[in-house]
Amino acid sequence: MCLEEKARIAHLIASDIPDNASLFIDIGTTSEEVAKALRDHSGLRVITNNFNVAAILSGNPGREVIITGGLVRPADLGIVGEATEDFIDQFKVDFGIITVSSIDADGTLLEYDYREVRAAQRIIKNSRRVVLAADHTKFSRSAMVRLGDLSSVDDLYTDQEPPENITKILEQFDVSLHIAEREE
Q1: Which residues, in sequence order, are bridge partners of residue 156?
Q2: Which of 30, 108, 123, 132 could tie 153 with a disulfide, CB 3.0–4.6 Å?
């Protein structure tokens, strides 16, 4: 599951998130690694549709964690549905941290669950800066539900240089690429 790579990506993202920021964090194991990497930040205001992220970040009096309502998926404790979407629409935050199951060769961002996609689309819409966290396996996987495309993100954080066609798309849409290198 690329846990080490996801942790590297998460630490790089956390290094670019200032204290006292507001942020959305979506569903996924990479998002949970980001939450772990943010534990030492102070003054964060976090809105999430991921029970695991809420549990990781709660319990610190210097941080505010808000969890959306909605349907809880038993497999990963992600929260989805219309109530989730409506809740997210109430906010405008500094950073929206999203993940995907797949990045297609044409730059399309893909997922497996349409309900998860609808929540992520709301996160994109209501974030001043959209951060996409995706390990290298996302460039060779296939999923079928369209979330959007790379033009809808500001930053891509990954663990390896993406394929050349993706790098060209990032340049075309002025998406900043951040690579979490393996420490030697």
Answers
A1: 132, 177
A2: 132
Residues 6+ apart with CB under 8 A from 127: 23, 24, 92, 93, 94, 95, 96
* pTM above threshold 0.90: yes
The CA distance from 76 to 108, in Å, is 24
Q: CA-CA distance, 94 to 81, in Å (whole number)? A: 23
- How far apart CA 111 and CA 128 sit, in angstroms, is 22
Give one DSSP letter per residue of 56-85, joined into a string. Answer: HHTT-TT-EEEE--SEEPTTT-BEESHHHH
- Give tens-digit pLDDT for 53-100: 999 999 888 899 999 999 999 999 999 999 999 999 999 999 999 999
The DSSP 8-state label assigned to residue 142 in this structure reads -
Task: Identify residue 144 by its one-letter amino acid code.
Answer: M
Q: What does the pLDDT look like over 4-59, one tens digit per residue?
A: 889 999 999 999 999 999 999 999 999 999 999 999 999 999 999 999 999 999 98
Q: Residues with Cβ < 8 Å from 141, sequence gap 6 or more?
A: 101, 102
Closest Cα to residue 78, out of 105, 118, 136, 44?
Answer: 118
Across 129-156, b (16+ Cβ under 10 Å) vs e yields: bbbbbbbbebbeeebebebbbbebbbbb
Whole-angstrom distance, CA of residue 144 vs CA of residue 150: 16
